[in-house]
Design goal:
alpha+beta, Maf protein, eight-stranded mixed beta sheet, 8 strands, globular
Length: about 220
Protein backbone atom coordinates (compact mmCIF):
# COMPACT_ATOMS: atom_id res chain seq x y z
CA UNK A 1 0.00 0.00 0.00
CA UNK A 2 1.14 3.53 -0.78
CA UNK A 3 0.23 6.29 1.65
CA UNK A 4 -0.28 9.79 0.26
CA UNK A 5 0.49 12.08 3.18
CA UNK A 6 -1.94 14.98 3.04
CA UNK A 7 -4.95 16.52 4.74
CA UNK A 8 -6.41 17.34 1.30
CA UNK A 9 -8.63 14.53 0.00
CA UNK A 10 -8.59 16.18 -3.45
CA UNK A 11 -4.91 15.39 -3.83
CA UNK A 12 -5.60 11.72 -3.11
CA UNK A 13 -8.35 11.62 -5.73
CA UNK A 14 -5.92 13.13 -8.22
CA UNK A 15 -3.26 10.56 -7.32
CA UNK A 16 -5.72 7.71 -7.91
CA UNK A 17 -6.01 8.82 -11.53
CA UNK A 18 -2.41 7.66 -11.93
CA UNK A 19 -1.90 5.01 -9.23
CA UNK A 20 -3.72 2.00 -7.81
CA UNK A 21 -3.82 1.25 -4.10
CA UNK A 22 -3.27 4.81 -2.86
CA UNK A 23 -4.63 5.62 0.58
CA UNK A 24 -4.63 8.90 2.45
CA UNK A 25 -2.47 9.33 5.54
CA UNK A 26 -3.67 12.33 7.50
CA UNK A 27 -0.41 13.13 9.26
CA UNK A 28 0.83 16.63 10.09
CA UNK A 29 4.56 16.32 9.40
CA UNK A 30 7.02 19.09 10.19
CA UNK A 31 7.20 21.54 7.30
CA UNK A 32 10.62 23.16 7.33
CA UNK A 33 11.28 26.58 5.85
CA UNK A 34 13.53 26.36 2.80
CA UNK A 35 14.16 28.30 -0.39
CA UNK A 36 13.25 25.31 -2.60
CA UNK A 37 10.44 22.77 -2.67
CA UNK A 38 12.64 19.67 -2.76
CA UNK A 39 14.12 19.84 0.77
CA UNK A 40 10.68 20.52 2.25
CA UNK A 41 9.06 17.51 0.59
CA UNK A 42 12.06 15.27 1.28
CA UNK A 43 12.15 16.10 4.98
CA UNK A 44 8.40 15.51 5.22
CA UNK A 45 8.68 12.14 3.47
CA UNK A 46 11.39 10.94 5.84
CA UNK A 47 9.37 11.95 8.89
CA UNK A 48 6.15 10.45 7.52
CA UNK A 49 7.87 7.16 6.67
CA UNK A 50 9.17 6.88 10.23
CA UNK A 51 5.64 7.49 11.47
CA UNK A 52 3.84 5.13 9.07
CA UNK A 53 6.44 2.39 8.64
CA UNK A 54 5.34 1.86 5.03
CA UNK A 55 5.87 3.56 1.65
CA UNK A 56 4.82 7.21 1.65
CA UNK A 57 4.43 9.98 -0.88
CA UNK A 58 4.64 13.64 0.19
CA UNK A 59 4.22 16.65 -2.06
CA UNK A 60 5.13 20.27 -1.75
CA UNK A 61 3.90 22.79 -4.29
CA UNK A 62 3.81 26.50 -4.87
CA UNK A 63 2.98 29.40 -7.14
CA UNK A 64 6.08 31.02 -8.64
CA UNK A 65 5.57 34.53 -10.04
CA UNK A 66 8.30 35.51 -12.50
CA UNK A 67 8.20 39.23 -11.77
CA UNK A 68 8.69 38.54 -8.06
CA UNK A 69 11.72 36.27 -8.53
CA UNK A 70 9.54 33.25 -7.91
CA UNK A 71 7.79 34.52 -4.78
CA UNK A 72 5.70 33.19 -3.05
CA UNK A 73 7.15 29.84 -4.20
CA UNK A 74 7.84 27.57 -1.20
CA UNK A 75 6.02 30.07 1.02
CA UNK A 76 2.79 29.86 -0.99
CA UNK A 77 0.76 28.14 1.70
CA UNK A 78 1.82 30.63 4.36
CA UNK A 79 1.15 33.61 2.09
CA UNK A 80 -2.27 32.22 1.15
CA UNK A 81 -3.16 31.75 4.80
CA UNK A 82 -1.96 35.18 5.93
CA UNK A 83 -2.52 37.54 2.98
CA UNK A 84 -5.04 35.58 0.92
CA UNK A 85 -5.22 34.78 -2.78
CA UNK A 86 -7.05 37.98 -3.72
CA UNK A 87 -4.33 40.11 -2.13
CA UNK A 88 -1.66 38.24 -4.06
CA UNK A 89 -3.52 38.87 -7.31
CA UNK A 90 -3.92 42.57 -6.59
CA UNK A 91 -0.27 42.86 -5.60
CA UNK A 92 0.85 41.24 -8.86
CA UNK A 93 -1.52 43.41 -10.91
CA UNK A 94 -0.27 46.56 -9.21
CA UNK A 95 3.43 45.81 -9.50
CA UNK A 96 3.92 43.77 -12.68
CA UNK A 97 2.94 44.61 -16.23
CA UNK A 98 0.96 42.09 -18.29
CA UNK A 99 1.20 39.22 -19.13
CA UNK A 100 2.21 38.59 -15.46
CA UNK A 101 3.76 35.18 -16.09
CA UNK A 102 3.85 32.56 -13.37
CA UNK A 103 4.10 28.81 -12.92
CA UNK A 104 2.73 26.20 -10.60
CA UNK A 105 5.44 23.78 -9.48
CA UNK A 106 5.23 20.55 -7.52
CA UNK A 107 7.78 18.16 -6.04
CA UNK A 108 6.73 14.66 -4.99
CA UNK A 109 8.97 12.89 -2.48
CA UNK A 110 8.83 9.11 -2.13
CA UNK A 111 10.34 7.14 0.74
CA UNK A 112 10.05 3.44 1.58
CA UNK A 113 13.21 2.86 3.60
CA UNK A 114 15.06 1.22 0.68
CA UNK A 115 17.95 2.44 -1.39
CA UNK A 116 17.36 3.71 -4.94
CA UNK A 117 20.85 3.18 -6.32
CA UNK A 118 20.88 2.24 -10.00
CA UNK A 119 17.81 4.32 -10.78
CA UNK A 120 18.27 7.12 -13.31
CA UNK A 121 16.77 10.06 -11.44
CA UNK A 122 18.40 12.04 -8.64
CA UNK A 123 18.09 10.60 -5.15
CA UNK A 124 17.94 13.22 -2.43
CA UNK A 125 20.01 12.56 0.70
CA UNK A 126 21.25 16.06 1.40
CA UNK A 127 18.24 18.11 2.47
CA UNK A 128 19.60 18.46 6.02
CA UNK A 129 21.94 21.25 4.98
CA UNK A 130 18.99 23.35 3.81
CA UNK A 131 17.02 22.50 6.93
CA UNK A 132 19.94 23.37 9.19
CA UNK A 133 20.47 26.66 7.38
CA UNK A 134 16.84 27.49 8.06
CA UNK A 135 17.25 26.61 11.72
CA UNK A 136 14.67 23.84 11.43
CA UNK A 137 16.74 20.89 12.63
CA UNK A 138 17.92 20.37 16.20
CA UNK A 139 20.74 17.84 16.36
CA UNK A 140 19.65 16.93 19.89
CA UNK A 141 16.51 15.42 18.38
CA UNK A 142 17.53 11.88 17.39
CA UNK A 143 14.74 11.42 14.83
CA UNK A 144 15.51 14.71 13.07
CA UNK A 145 19.27 14.26 13.37
CA UNK A 146 19.41 11.04 11.32
CA UNK A 147 16.63 11.73 8.81
CA UNK A 148 19.22 12.36 6.09
CA UNK A 149 20.20 8.68 6.12
CA UNK A 150 16.91 7.71 4.49
CA UNK A 151 17.01 8.07 0.69
CA UNK A 152 14.12 9.97 -0.87
CA UNK A 153 13.32 10.00 -4.55
CA UNK A 154 12.03 13.27 -6.02
CA UNK A 155 9.70 13.81 -8.98
CA UNK A 156 8.96 17.28 -10.35
CA UNK A 157 6.16 18.75 -12.39
CA UNK A 158 5.34 22.28 -13.52
CA UNK A 159 2.85 24.18 -15.64
CA UNK A 160 3.23 27.70 -16.96
CA UNK A 161 0.52 30.34 -17.05
CA UNK A 162 -0.24 33.85 -15.88
CA UNK A 163 -1.89 35.66 -12.99
CA UNK A 164 -5.36 37.05 -13.71
CA UNK A 165 -8.35 38.37 -11.79
CA UNK A 166 -10.17 35.54 -9.95
CA UNK A 167 -12.44 33.38 -12.12
CA UNK A 168 -14.16 30.07 -11.51
CA UNK A 169 -15.69 28.20 -8.61
CA UNK A 170 -13.66 24.99 -8.58
CA UNK A 171 -10.24 23.96 -7.37
CA UNK A 172 -8.56 25.36 -4.31
CA UNK A 173 -5.75 27.69 -3.28
CA UNK A 174 -4.46 29.88 -6.09
CA UNK A 175 -6.50 28.10 -8.79
CA UNK A 176 -8.90 31.05 -9.39
CA UNK A 177 -6.07 33.46 -10.27
CA UNK A 178 -3.88 31.10 -12.32
CA UNK A 179 -4.76 30.99 -16.01
CA UNK A 180 -3.38 28.30 -18.32
CA UNK A 181 -4.31 28.08 -21.98
CA UNK A 182 -7.20 30.52 -21.62
CA UNK A 183 -8.85 29.08 -18.49
CA UNK A 184 -8.10 29.41 -14.82
CA UNK A 185 -7.61 26.18 -12.94
CA UNK A 186 -10.78 27.01 -10.99
CA UNK A 187 -12.75 27.02 -14.27
CA UNK A 188 -11.65 23.51 -15.22
CA UNK A 189 -13.38 20.27 -14.33
CA UNK A 190 -11.33 18.06 -12.04
CA UNK A 191 -10.25 15.70 -14.84
CA UNK A 192 -9.32 18.62 -17.11
CA UNK A 193 -7.18 20.18 -14.39
CA UNK A 194 -5.52 16.86 -13.49
CA UNK A 195 -4.54 16.36 -17.13
CA UNK A 196 -2.41 19.53 -17.21
CA UNK A 197 -1.62 20.33 -13.57
CA UNK A 198 1.83 20.47 -12.02
CA UNK A 199 0.86 17.75 -9.57
CA UNK A 200 -0.56 15.58 -12.33
CA UNK A 201 2.67 15.86 -14.31
CA UNK A 202 4.73 14.91 -11.27
CA UNK A 203 2.37 12.02 -10.53
CA UNK A 204 2.68 10.74 -14.09
CA UNK A 205 6.47 10.62 -13.75
CA UNK A 206 6.23 8.92 -10.38
CA UNK A 207 3.66 6.36 -11.56
CA UNK A 208 5.86 5.37 -14.51
CA UNK A 209 8.81 4.80 -12.18
CA UNK A 210 6.78 3.20 -9.37
CA UNK A 211 5.55 0.46 -11.71
CA UNK A 212 9.15 -0.76 -12.00
CA UNK A 213 9.63 -1.11 -8.23
CA UNK A 214 9.87 -4.73 -7.00
CA UNK A 215 6.94 -5.90 -4.91
Amino acid sequence: MLRYVTTNAGKVREAREYLDGVEQLNYDYTEIQAAELGPIAARGAREAYRQAGEPVLVDDAGLFVEGFDGFPGPYSSYVEGTLGVDVVQRLVAGEIDAPRRASFQCVLAYCDGDDFAATPDPVDREDRSAAAAAGAVDDADDDAADDGTLPVKLFRGSVRGRIVEPRGEGGFGYDPIFEHDGSTFAELAADEKNAVSHRGRALAKFAEWFQTRPV
